[in-house]
Design goal:
The chain has about 425 residues and is α/β, with parallel strands linked by helices. The chain is built from twelve helices and 16 strands. Strands 1, 2, 3, 4, 5, 14, 15 and 16 form an eight-stranded mixed sheet that branches. It has an eight-stranded parallel sheet with strand order 6-7-8-9-10-11-12-13. The radius of gyration is 21 Å and the shape is globular.
C-alpha cells in the first residue's frame, strides 16, 4: 500500500480549545497541510510515523509578546527562531520593535529569513523599541507621527497586528497620557488593536516626581475600546491592575474588561507571583500569554557583557520562556485547556487570524506544537525573589512549522534542572 500521508503524529493528546477537542488522536500531514485528524490512522497510510504518545499536541503555540527585531533594536532583540520554532513556538509577535521608520525592516530582516512566522505590533513612537525603550527622551508625543504610522501599518497589514504604547508613571511624569491618545488614533485609523504596556519603565521626571499610579490607570482606561489589550496585569511595578490605594483590582479595570478589553500576560521580568495570585483571586483570568523575552532578561551563551546587561532597568535573572510561563499559570490554578487556549485559540482571535492560526483543523497549515507535561517537584521563581514549588511543568519537545519539524533545542529553553528543586 502506497502511503497516503507524508507523516502521522501518532497517539498524542490533542488539545484544541477552539474546536473543543481534547482526546487521544492521530494527526496526518501531507506537504505543509493537516490532512486528517482521526482517533486512529492506519500506519501503512503514513510515509513516516512520529510517536507522540504521552505528549500534548496543540496548534502551533503563539507567543504574543516577543522582542525579536534582532540587531536593529540593539542588544534588546533576540533571534526569532531561538524564541520561535526552536522553542516550540510557530508564530511570534514582536512587541513594539518596528516603527513607521523601520517597519519594512522587520519583513526583510525578520519575517523573510526566519523559519518562525514573524508578526509585529507597530510602535507608536518613531524610533520603535531601540534598546528596549532605554532612553525616555525618545518616547514623548513629539516623537510620534500619526499619518506615517497609519501608512506603515496599512502597507504591512499582513504582518502588523496592533499598535504599541506605554502607560507608565515615568512617561506620564513628562508628557501625561498624550502618547496613549496618539497611539489610539493610529490604531483606530489602521483598524487594529491598541496594545498598552502597564507598569513603570522609567524613573519619574525630576521636576514632577510624585505621579499617582492609580490616577494614571483611571485616566487611561476610558481611552481603550473593545479588542484593545492591556499587558502585564501581574507586574511587580507600580501602575498595574492592583490599586495602591485599596490593594484590590481597580474598578476601571473591571469596566474595561466588561466592554471587551483583553488581558495579555507579558511575563518578562515584570511577572510577580504575588500580584498574579491577587488579581486571579478576584476572578480575572488571562486571555493570552506572551513570554516577553529579550536580551536583558535571558542569557545567550554567546554574550560576554552579562554584568553590563544586568545594570539595565529591564534586566531579569529568573530563567523562563513561554512554557515556563504556561507552567506558572497552571500552578496558579488555571485549568490545562485554559492555559493551552492562552497560547493558541485566544491569541489567534486577538490578532484577527483565527481563520488560519490557533487551531488544528484539516486543510490548515501544519503548524503544530508537541509538549511534555512533566510531573515532579519543580521550583519556579520570579524577579521579586519569590520561589514556589510546582507539581507540573510544560517542556517543549518539537514543533512542525508548515509540516517541517524543528527540535526544541534553543539555548533559551531553560534546562529542566534549572527549575528542579535542589
Amino acid at each position: 500500500m502506497r502511503p497516503v500521508y507524508d507523516l502521522v503524529l501518532q497517539g498524542g493528546t490533542v488539545i484544541d480549545p477552539m474546536t473543543g477537542r481534547h482526546q487521544v488522536a492521530d494527526i496526518a500531514v501531507t506537504g505543509s497541510r493537516i490532512a486528517a485528524i482521526e482517533s486512529r490512522i492506519s500506519p501503512p497510510l503514513a510515509g513516516k510515523i512520529m510517536d507522540v504518545s504521552g505528549r500534548i499536541v496543540t496548534a502551533g503555540m503563539i507567543d504574543t509578546h516577543g522582542h525579536i527585531y534582532e540587531h536593529v533594536t540593539g542588544r534588546f532583540g533576540l533571534n526569532p527562531d531561538l524564541v520561535g520554532v526552536r522553542s516550540g513556538v510557530t508564530p511570534i509577535i514582536d512587541q513594539g520593535g518596528p516603527s513607521c521608520m523601520t517597519g519594512n525592516g522587520i519583513r526583510h530582516y525578520g519575517a523573510e529569513p526566519a523559519d518562525t512566522r514573524v508578526l509585529a505590533v507597530l510602535s507608536a513612537y518613531l524610533v520603535g523599541g531601540l534598546e528596549g525603550h532605554l532612553y525616555p527622551e525618545l518616547y514623548g508625543p513629539g516623537q510620534t507621527n500619526i499619518e506615517h504610522s497609519v501608512r506603515a501599518a496599512r502597507e504591512n497589514a499582513d504582518l502588523v497586528r496592533g499598535i504599541k504604547a506605554h502607560a507608565e508613571v515615568g512617561g506620564v511624569s513628562r508628557w501625561g497620557l498624550e502618547v496613549m491618545r496618539i497611539g489610539k488614533a493610529i490604531a483606530r485609523e489602521a483598524n487594529i488593536p491598541l496594545y498598552i504596556h502597564l507598569g513603570q519603565l522609567w524613573p519619574t521626571a525630576a521636576d514632577n516626581p510624585d505621579i499617582d499610579a492609580d490616577e494614571l490607570v483611571r485616566e487611561l482606561l476610558p481611552i481603550m475600546e473593545e479588542g484593545d489589550v492591556l499587558a502585564h496585569p501581574f507586574t511587580r511595578h507600580p501602575g498595574g491592575f492592583i490599586s495602591e490605594e485599596t490593594g484590590q483590582v481597580h474598578p476601571v479595570i473591571w469596566a474595561a474588561l466588561e466592554r471587551g478589553v483583553k488581558v495579555d500576560v507579558g511575563h518578562g521580568s515584570h511577572f510577580s507571583f504575588d500580584m498574579a495570585a491577587r488579581v486571579m483571586a478576584e476572578g480575572i483570568v488571562p486571555y493570552t500569554l506572551g513570554a516577553d523575552m529579550h536580551g536583558y532578561n535571558v542569557r545567550m551563551p554567546s554574550v560576554t557583557d552579562i554584568e553590563d546587561r544586568q545594570l539595565n532597568p529591564f534586566a531579569g535573572v529568573s530563567p523562563f520562556n513561554l512554557t515556563v510561563a504556561m507552567s506558572k499559570l497552571l500552578y496558579l490554578g488555571m485549568k490545562l485547556d485554559d492555559v493551552i487556549a492562552t497560547v493558541t485559540a485566544n491569541p489567534a482571535r486577538m490578532i484577527g487570524m483565527s481563520d488560519t492560526l490557533g487551531s488544528l483543523q484539516v486543510g490548515r497549515e501544519a503548524d503544530i506544537s508537541v509538549l511534555d507535561l512533566k510531573e515532579g517537584d519543580f521550583t519556579m521563581s520570579d524577579n521579586s525573589g519569590v520561589r514556589v514549588t510546582a507539581r507540573r511543568m510544560f517542556v517543549p519537545e518539537f514543533c512542525l512549522r508548515g509540516g517541517t519539524r524543528f527540535e526544541a533545542d534553543s539555548p533559551l529553553v531553560p534546562p529542566l534542572e534549572e527549575v528542579v528543586a535542589a
